[in-house]
UniProtKB/TrEMBL annotation:
Residues 169-239 form the PEP-utilising enzyme mobile domain. Pfam families: PEP-utilizers. Belongs to the PEP-utilizing enzyme family. Gene3D superfamilies: Phosphohistidine domain. One of its GO terms (molecular function) is pyruvate, water dikinase activity. Keywords: ATP-binding, Nucleotide-binding. This is PEP-utilizing protein mobile region. PANTHER family: PHOSPHOENOLPYRUVATE SYNTHASE. The keyword ATP-binding applies. SUPFAM superfamilies: Phosphohistidine domain.
């Protein structure tokens, strides 16, 4: 434990920078797939931060440690680029979730846990400038940062916990505090994504770019304004949501 704490205290800035670099490279690749070196640089940055994060691998459940191995051995496993991206994001998510669970349940924490959680929390913070909408307030729901353009009109599925995933139906817009890798089970049913948290490098943004789903993130609190299955207009060209 002391060894890990010392390593984190020494390397915390490097971990922050490498993690940001990896997610920035993922976003760049997703938006510039035709560039020859975009994939190579993204893969390199993913592997670099995975090597740094590997020191924390023993502190997550053993059956979830496999995501570290999948990322590190992606060539031997013949992983597609999409699977590499999603496996890496799942790996970071599992580490983050473990730290959150320990903190919320007041379980015994490693001395490095709060600092590591702070590093991982950055991806969930609202970043960028949201679009302000000045039309009829009765029609306006929220605005945020558009990460994949497009306009969708559909019924909304409000996802606040795992149980709500069963409410995702074909062609729906999902509204959530944030997305998690669990959403992958219904990805082909989703026509639009709106989240309260996150920026251009969050999980929802990665998911939306990878599957070309219109998406607005970092909208702030808005879900309490919605009713399950009501019709929304997600205008990701302008970063706004309307009723």
């Amino acid at each position: 434990m002391n060894t890990v704490r010392k390593l984190l205290q020494t390397n915390s800035q490097e971990i922050k920078e490498k993690l940001d670099q990896a997610y920035t490279s993922i976003a760049f690749f997703q938006n510039n797939r035709a560039l020859e070196d975009a994939k190579a640089k993204m893969t390199q940055h993913i592997l670099e931060v995975t090597i740094l994060l590997d020191q924390f691998k023993p502190y997550i459940p053993e059956y979830k440690q496999r995501y570290f191995d999948i990322v590190m051995n992606h060539k031997q496993l013949g992983l597609s680029t999409r699977d590499l991206i999603m496996s890496f994001d799942q790996m970071v998510f599992e580490l983050h979730t473990r730290l959150e669970k320990n903190l919320s349940n007041h379980q015994e924490l490693q001395a490095w846990s709060p600092l590591m959680r702070e590093i991982l929390d950055v991806r969930r913070q609202i970043t960028g400038n949201s679009v302000k909408h000045e039309s009829d307030a009765s029609q306006f729901v929220t605005s945020g940062l558009s990460v994949v353009s497009g306009c969708v009109k559909a019924h909304v599925a409000i996802i606040e916990d795992m149980e709500d995933l069963k409410n995702i139906h074909s062609g729906c817009i999902i509204a959530s505090r944030m997305t998690t890798p669990d959403f992958m089970i219904a990805i082909h049913k989703i026509s639009g994504i709106i989240t309260e948290q996150g920026g251009r490098l969050c999980h929802a943004a990665i998911l939306a770019r990878e599957y070309n789903i219109p998406c607005i993130v970092g909208c702030g609190t808005f879900i309490n304004q919605l009713t399950e299955n009501e019709v929304l207009i997600l205008d990701a060209d302008n970063g706004i949501v309307l009723k």
